[in-house]
Amino acid sequence: MESVVPFGICDTNASPVCKCVSGFQPKNLEAWNLGNGFDGCVRKRELKCTKDKFLRLRSEIA
Question: Which of 10, 14, 24, 60 is the 20 to 30 Å CA partner of 31?
Answer without folding.
Answer: 60
